[in-house]
């Protein structure tokens, strides 16, 4: 059996958590499409959103494993979160020209 440092989960489990969280987040627009006409996503919308969310999450997992300090992990998370929101907004409404 392999020993792990405290609070660190195996890579495969971290990746699974990211993928399950991505699927759970994508259930929100899927459910909204069932009850309102205001949400109208196509397959390509789900694919892009899934790739963006999963990619960001997996990138965070990889980066967080390389930094030991909690403040650095927070900084990495904030930068990746800001990048995710900027890209999402650009794809949604085109805020950058």
Measured between the Cα atoms of the first and last residue, the distance is 54 Å
Kindly name the structural category. mainly alpha
Helices, by number, come to 3
How would you characterize the largest beta sheet?
none
Spans of at least 5 consecutive residues whose pLDDT stays below 50 are none
Order of helices and strands: HHH
**Tally of discrete structural domains:** 1
Q: What is the typical, i.e. mean, pLDDT? A: 90
Structure commentary:
The protein is mainly α and 97 residues long. The protein has one domain (11-93). The chain has helices at 11-35, 43-66, 70-93. Helix 1 runs antiparallel to helix 2 and helix 2 (43-66) packs antiparallel against helix 3.
Topology, element by element:
Blueprint: H1 11-35, H2 43-66, H3 70-93
Helix pairs in contact: 1-2, 2-3
Please give a handful of descriptors for the protein shown.
75% helix, 0% strand, 97 residues, globular, mainly alpha
Question: How would you sum up this structure in a few lines?
Answer:
Helices cover 75% and strands 0% of the residues.
């Amino acid at each position: 059996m392999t020993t792990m440092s405290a609070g660190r989960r195996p890579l495969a489990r971290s990746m699974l958590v990211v993928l399950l969280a991505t699927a759970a987040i994508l259930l929100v627009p899927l459910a909204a499409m069932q009850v309102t006409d205001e949400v109208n996503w196509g397959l390509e919308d789900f694919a892009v959103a899934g790739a963006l969310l999963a990619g960001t999450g997996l990138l965070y997992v990889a980066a967080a494993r390389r930094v030991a300090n909690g403040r650095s992990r927070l900084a990495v998370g904030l930068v990746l979160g800001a990048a995710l929101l900027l890209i999402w907004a650009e794809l949604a409404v085109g805020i950058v020209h």
